[in-house]
Amino acid sequence: MQATALWAALHAPLLLWLSMRIVPMRHAMDVEIGTGGHPALERAVRAQANFTEYAPFALLLLALAEASGTPGWAVNAIGALLLVGRVIHAWGITRQVEDIRFRVVGMSATFAAIALGAAACLVASLSGWG
User: Which residues contact 85 (CB under 8 A, 6 or more apart)?
Assistant: First the structure.
């Protein structure tokens, strides 16, 4: 599962960046848990949470598709689409003055990667039933 390993590794710095932004904000705002009603901290927490809500399942689908024999070009295309979507979404959601178009494009790419990953798994699993 070399392709999935590559895409998971390329997603890791984004998760680390989204997560490490929260710690200094918590210290500066004296908030141990939650967001303390601070909009900037809420935005940072939601950006990190959104990543962890979508990326792991998409990467799981990618791994299952690859393990089931989906061609490498397809696995890599889905992985690239997911990463581009997650980066665009992260850029959009972390802006204090948000341009919603980044979030829309990022989530659209993420949803497309999940749908394509699911389709690849379905095709691969059904091809083994014959």
Answer: 105, 106, 107, 108, 109, 110, 112, 113
Each residue of 64-97: pLDDT tens digit? 999 999 999 999 999 999 999 999 999 999 988 8
Where do the DSSP E strands lie in 69-126? Answer: none
Distance CA 63, CA 55 (A): 12
Taking the CA atoms of residue 116, residue 3, residue 76 and residue 92 in that order, the dihedral angle to the nearest 10 degrees is 80
Contact present, 70 and 124 (Cβ < 8 Å): yes
DSSP conformation letters of 14-83: HHHHHHHTHHHHHHHHT-SSS-TT-HHHHHHHHHHHHHHHHHHHHHHHHHHHHHTT--HHHHHHHHHHHH
Range of the domain at 77: 2-127
Q: Give the integer Cα–Cα distance in Å for 89 and 53.
A: 13
Rounded Cα–Cα distance for residues 78 and 87 (Å)? 14
pLDDT tens across 30-62, in order?
999 999 999 999 999 999 999 999 999 999 999
